[in-house]
Design brief:
Blueprint (H helix, E strand, L loop, with lengths): L1 H16 L3 E7 L7 E7 L3 E5 L8 E4 L2 H13 L18 E7 L3 E6 L5 H29 L4 H13 L10 H9 L5 H23 L1
Antiparallel strand pairs: 1-2, 1-5, 2-3, 3-4, 5-6
Helix pairs in contact: 2-3, 3-4, 4-6, 5-6
């Protein structure tokens, strides 16, 4: 009986250890938003929050190569078991925390890190945050401010052109809604249609492999 219990515990531990998460938080009073939390699973599922108790988090599916790149950086950073703060006298840019959770939890806090791998991982999280801020703004304008949809689309496309838009397929439902509804400005509908076509064209090669 004791052997069975030990084996069961070992199996549970192994399963949990095989499913790690990377969690990023940033607290920056006075900024918009003042708080960001992003968790990324090994399978690419990511959750974006703008408050610790956010009742309306956004769940997205990252492309697996993007997710793998983030976890590879976490590996290089020893799963955040070592300090990442540079110690340099620089302006306050928000309290940031990387945490790695694989059954045990390790985290490292910093304002600014001179570690290139930490900078690269931070940039991934910032791209996710920029993308979701764009999504939130587009969703808001689609629902409540039809005249503002054009500007929201321009901001998202700028992020796209700068190659900082993550998981663009998440925008298709909103874009299609704009295209099909004649109550939106004609130029906004045209822009939404062209953008949706770009996103779908990007996904086609992967689907055909």
């Amino acid at each position: 009986m004791k052997v069975f219990a030990a084996l069961a515990l070992l199996c549970l531990t192994s399963l949990h250890a095989a499913d790690p998460r990377i969690i990023f938080t940033k607290s920056f009073p006075g900024s918009v938003p003042e708080y960001v939390e992003i968790s990324v699973e090994k399978n690419g599922t990511a959750v974006y929050k703008e408050a610790p108790d956010d009742n309306n988090p956004i769940t997205i599916q990252l492309a697996q190569p993007d997710c793998d790149a983030m976890f590879a950086l976490a590996d290089k950073l020893d799963h955040f078991t070592r300090p990442l703060e540079s110690g340099l006298k620089v302006a306050f840019m928000g309290k940031k925390t990387f945490r790695y959770d694989d059954g045990t939890s390790h985290d490292s806090q910093f304002n600014y890190s001179s570690d290139l791998d930490a900078q690269a991982l931070l940039d991934w999280f910032e791209k996710i945050a920029e993308t979701e801020r764009g999504y939130i703004e587009l969703e808001r304008t689609v629902k409540y401010d039809k005249l503002g949809v054009q500007n929201a689309l321009i901001l998202i496309q700028t992020t796209w052109d700068q190659k900082r838009l993550i998981a663009p397929q998440q925008f298709l439902t909103l874009l299609d809604r704009v295209v099909k509804n004649e109550s939106y400005l004609h130029m906004a509908r045209e822009r939404a249609s062209a953008f949706a076509q770009e996103i779908r064209a990007l996904a086609q090669p992967a689907a055909g492999q």
